[in-house]
Each structure stands twice: as C-alpha cells, then as structure tokens.
Design goal:
- By secondary structure, this protein is of the alpha+beta class.
- 31% of the residues lie in helices and 23% in strands.
Length: 169
C-alpha cells in the first residue's frame, strides 16, 4: 500500500532568499528554479528533453514528458525545474545542461491532489554532492507554488520499492 506523508505549508521565502544570498556570495555553485508553465511554448521542448534524460538515467525507459505536458495543458498544476549553475552562471559539466531535478505537481481540486492540496506526483533530484540541498530547494519551491495557489498542504508521493532514506535538516 502506498502512503502519502503530509505536512502544512509554511512561509519559507525569506529563509530561501537568505540561503540564495549565501550561495551567491560563496565559492560554491548556485541553484535556481523555474516553473514549466512560465517557459514560452516555443522553448518548452528543451526542458522536456532534459527531464527525459534525467528519468531515463534513473530507470531505463521512464519517460514522463507526456505527463508534464498534460499537467500544464489541462491546468492541473505545474512542474518545478531545478537548475544548478557555477557562480559564473555556466552549467556544471556533465549534468544534462544544468537541469539537476524536477517535480511535477497536481494543485487543483478534481485532480489527483484533491481540494486544498499540492500533490507532488513525481520528484527527482540527481544524487551527487548537492543532493540534500537540491532536494530541500525543490521542496521549498514546491511550498512556494502551493502558497501562491493558496493551498494548505503538500502531499509527496513516494515509491516505497525504490526509496532511500533522506534526512533533511
């Protein structure tokens, strides 16, 4: 049986901005995110291809591009795209043109989310040195999406057959 852990959405914008300022002032690489729905239609194919590369690296043949497009076209929610750049704003070599993770979310009543809920149907972050930080930022971005849509809870789908313990502090 699949369970869906839940927690209430909290204000995290100021904390995320402070963390971003710290990252921008340090010698480490920076992270930024965007919403798939905000990408112009004529440029949406490139991030879809990048998502396909990421999912195929995790599980051969796993393709979620059609789901991402359906969520967008049917206004069921959005997809958060997470990017990691060096301080000079160039992509880190070998990371699929700097896309490091994504999550697609259902956010409307009548979808899989239900009323007042942002449901993360699928989330993926590359596992390398910055995995925990990237995953935390992805969840924070999702929290901001939920807040913007005035949703009171976030529900995260978890595949218990493939789960690895993640401790986020």
């Amino acid at each position: 049986m699949r369970t869906k852990p839940t927690w209430t959405v909290e204000e995290e914008r100021e904390q995320q901005q402070q963390q971003q300022r710290k990252r921008n002032n340090s010698n480490t690489s920076s992270v930024h995110w965007s919403k798939y729905s905000e990408i112009p239609k004529h440029k949406q194919e490139q991030p879809l291809d990048k998502c396909g590369i990421l999912t195929n690296n995790v599980y051969d043949g796993l393709q979620l591009e059609n789901e991402i497009v359906a969520v967008n076209n049917q206004n069921l929610g959005d997809t958060i795209l997470l990017y990691r750049n060096n301080n000079d704003n160039t992509a880190i070599k070998g990371d699929n043109n700097n896309l490091t993770g994504f999550a697609f979310c259902h956010c409307v009543a009548g979808s899989e989310a239900g009323s007042g809920v942002c449901y993360l149907k699928f989330e993926l972050v590359l596992s390398y040195n910055y995995f925990q930080e990237n995953f935390r930022i992805l969840l924070n971005a999702t929290s901001l999406l939920a807040k913007d849509r005035r949703l009171s809870r976030i529900v995260v789908g978890v595949n218990t057959e493939q789960v690895k313990l993640i401790v986020i502090r």
